[in-house]
Amino acid sequence: MKKKLLREGPYADFFSQGVQTGNILTLAGQLGDDLEGNVPNDLQSQMENCYKNIKIILKEFNASLDNIIDETWFVTNIEECMTNVGEIFGSREKIYGCKPEVSQTLIGVSALVDPKYKIEIKCIAYLDKVEE
Question: What is the pLDDT of residues 95-132, one digit of tens each?
């Protein structure tokens, strides 16, 4: 099986941020850091940063959010997420530019890689054109 890999960031020696095989692109879970490495305190701002990071990876594979077919959200405080679901998913809709046409799973977890993170988003994308 032929794979195209994107290895970047502090853990590049351990895993890829993106793996493409055929028309399928899987993304490693993305956290809520901004481009300067700052992590906001609130879930919604972290979620917005997750999507900024997702867009960066998608661009490396000539893709966009339109290519996303599945998302998995891992959140450390499901109550905070559900209490603010209207605002959070409204912001997500603005990021996509429409109601996202994706399947989604929301999972409550006890912790992520660092206690400052409240959300991690993992995606699968379908690529229309495959570069040989």
Answer: 999 999 999 999 999 999 999 999 999 999 999 876 65
**In this structure, how many other beta carbons lie within 10 angstroms of the beta carbon of residue 38?**
11
Q: Are strands 24-27 and 119-126 parallel, antiparallel or unpaired?
A: antiparallel
Which fold, 16-126? 60s Ribosomal Protein L30; Chain: A; (3.30.1330)
Flag residues of the chain having pLDDT under 70.
9-12, 130-132
CA 62 remoteness from chain centre: 16
Q: Which of 71, 53, 64 minimizes the C-alpha distance to 17?
A: 53
- Distance, in Å, from the CA atom of 23 to the CA atom of 97, rounded to the nearest integer, reads 23
Distance CA 92, CA 78 (A): 17
pTM of the model: 0.93
pLDDT of residue 13: 74
Domain ranges of the chain: 16-126
First-residue to last-residue Cα distance in the chain:
13
Q: Which pLDDT score is estimated for 55?
A: 97
